[in-house]
Every structure is written in structure tokens, then in C-alpha cells.
């Protein structure tokens, strides 16, 4: 299936904005989101992820 065209890209953005963003905002408003800085090396990111799940 070839899906690398503007119509498909637009549909994906629309789906994300209509279906995902409201759920993300719901969790943000309930303080149920955890942010992890992924602009580090992979070992440090993995360590941060493990820390979060260990301390939940």
C-alpha cells in the first residue's frame, strides 16, 4: 500500500488532532502525564523511563 501522499498525511494529522489530542489534554488536566526528556543518549533516556515505572 502506498500511503505517502498529501491526502493520507492530512488524514493522519486530522485523526491525531481529533482523536489523540483530546485524550492527551484530558490526562494533562488530571496531572496524569509524565514527561521524559528524550534529547539525551539512549541509555540515559532508558534510565529515566525505568525510574518512572519503578516509582509509580
Description:
The protein is mostly helical. The protein has one domain. Helix content is 66%, strand content 0%. The protein has 2 helices and no strands.
Rg, alpha carbons: 16 Å
Q: Helical element count?
A: 2
Order of helices and strands: HH
Strand content is: under 5%
Cα end-to-end separation: 41 Å
Principal-axes geometry comes out as flat
Stretches where pLDDT is under 50 for at least 5 consecutive residues are none
How many beta strands in the DSSP annotation? 0
- Give the total of domains: 1
Structural class of the secondary elements?
Answer: mainly alpha
> Overall pLDDT, averaged?
94
Biggest sheet overview = none
Helix content, binned percent: 55-70%
Give a quick precis of the structure.
66% of the residues lie in helices and 0% in strands.
Amino acid at each position: 500500500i502506498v500511503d505517502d501522499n498529501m491526502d493520507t498525511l492530512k488524514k493522519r494529522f486530522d485523526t491525531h488532532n481529533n482523536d489523540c489530542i483530546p485524550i492527551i489534554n484530558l490526562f494533562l488536566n488530571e496531572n496524569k502525564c509524565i514527561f521524559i526528556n528524550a534529547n539525551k543518549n539512549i541509555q540515559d533516556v532508558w534510565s529515566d523511563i525505568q525510574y518512572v515505572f519503578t516509582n509509580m
